[in-house]
C-alpha cells in the first residue's frame, strides 16, 4: 500500500517570510498525482496545488510552489510571503490514477503564521 | 462549500444507534468519496463511488455501508455505531480519480 509521510507535525513562520513543508511518499507506480490541501480552523478542505508525476516542471500557484523530486519521492510545499490567513493544517495527498483504494493523505502539518 | 452539501454538521449518538450521513453534489461529477478524519492520522478513505450505481471499499470500510442513489447523492450509513467511529466525516467529489477532490464542510460525529 502507498504511504505518505509528513515529518513535521507543527511549524511556525513569521509573517512575510518563507516556509517549506515536507512530504515524502512511497509507491511503485510511475504515474500518479500529488496534491496539497489546506484546512483552516473552519474545517474546510481547500485545494492548494496539484502536481502530475509525469510533468517535470514544478507546479506554482501564486505564493505557493512545490519542489517535486520524483526519484526521491519527495513533494515539498513552499509558501512565500506568508500571511496570517495561511495559518492552517496542511495535508499532502497521493492519488493513483486507476485505483482509488490506494489514495492516501499524510497526517498533516500544523502551520502557524506569527505577526 | 460550493457544489457539495453535507448533512448534518454535528451529531451525537449512543453506542448501537444507527444513522445516515447525507451528501449531495450539484456539479454533475461521477466520482464521490467518504473520508474520516482523526487526530494525527489525516484523512482515510472509507468508501468511494466511481459512478452512479457502483461503490467500492476504501482503506477503512468496516462498520460502514454506502449507497449511491443517483449521480447527485452518496450516503454513508452506520448501522450500529461504536465509540471508535467518533470522528469528523467528509464527503468529496471529483470529475474523475485523477482530478482534485472538492470537499464538503464535514460532519462531527460523537458516539457515547
How many strand elements of chain A? 12
Task: Extract low-pLDDT stretches of chain A.
Answer: none
Structural class of chain B: mainly beta
Topology as H/E string of chain A?
Answer: EEEEEEEEEEEE
Kindly estimate the percentage of residues of chain A that lie in beta strands according to DSSP: over 45%
**Rg over CA atoms of chain A:** 14 Å
Strand element count of chain B: 11
Q: Number of DSSP helices of chain B? A: 0
Shape of chain B: globular
User: What would the average pLDDT of chain B be, to the nearest integer?
Assistant: 92
Task: Walk me through what this model shows.
The complex is a heterodimer of chains A (115) and B (112). By secondary structure, chain A is an all-beta fold. Helices cover 0% and strands 50% of the residues of chain A. Chain A is built from no helices and twelve strands. In chain A, the strands form three sheets. In chain A, strands 2, 5, 6, 10, 11 and 12 form a six-stranded mixed beta sheet that branches. In chain A, strand 8 (64-69) and strand 9 form a beta hairpin. Chain B contains no helices and eleven strands. In chain B, a hairpin with a 7-residue loop joins strand 7 (65-67) and strand 8 (75-78). The mean pLDDT of chain B is 92. The chains are: A mainly beta (115), B mainly beta (112). The interface between A and B is medium-sized, with 27 and 26 residues.
Write a brief structural summary.
With 115 residues, chain A is mainly β.
List keywords for this structure.
heterodimer, A: 115 residues, mainly beta, six-stranded mixed beta sheet, B: 112 residues, seven-stranded mixed beta sheet, 0% helix, globular
Amino acid at each position: 500500500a502507498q504511504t505518505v509521510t509528513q515529518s513535521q507535525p507543527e511549524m511556525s513562520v513569521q509573517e512575510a517570510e518563507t516556509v517549506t513543508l515536507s512530504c515524502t511518499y512511497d509507491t511503485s507506480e510511475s504515474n500518479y498525482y500529488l496534491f496539497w490541501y489546506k484546512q483552516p480552523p473552519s474545517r474546510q478542505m481547500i485545494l492548494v496545488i496539484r502536481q502530475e508525476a509525469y510533468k517535470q516542471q514544478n507546479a506554482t500557484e501564486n505564493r505557493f510552489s512545490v519542489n517535486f523530486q520524483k526519484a526521491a519521492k519527495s513533494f515539498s510545499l513552499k509558501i512565500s510571503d506568508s500571511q496570517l490567513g495561511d495559518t492552517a493544517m496542511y495535508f499532502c495527498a497521493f492519488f493513483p490514477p486507476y485505483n482509488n483504494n490506494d489514495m492516501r493523505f499524510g497526517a498533516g502539518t500544523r502551520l502557524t503564521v506569527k505577526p | 462549500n460550493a457544489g457539495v452539501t453535507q448533512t448534518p454538521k454535528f451529531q451525537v449518538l449512543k453506542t448501537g444507534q444507527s444513522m445516515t450521513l447525507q451528501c449531495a453534489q450539484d456539479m454533475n461529477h461521477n466520482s464521490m468519496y467518504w473520508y474520516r478524519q482523526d487526530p494525527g492520522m489525516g484523512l482515510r478513505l472509507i468508501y468511494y463511488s466511481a459512478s452512479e450505481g457502483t461503490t467500492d471499499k476504501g482503506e477503512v470500510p468496516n462498520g460502514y455501508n454506502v449507497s449511491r442513489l443517483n449521480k447527485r447523492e452518496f450516503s454513508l450509513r452506520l448501522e450500529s455505531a461504536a465509540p471508535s467511529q467518533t470522528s469528523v466525516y467528509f464527503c468529496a467529489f471529483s470529475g474523475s480519480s485523477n482530478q482534485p477532490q472538492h470537499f464538503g464542510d464535514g460532519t462531527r460525529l460523537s458516539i457515547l
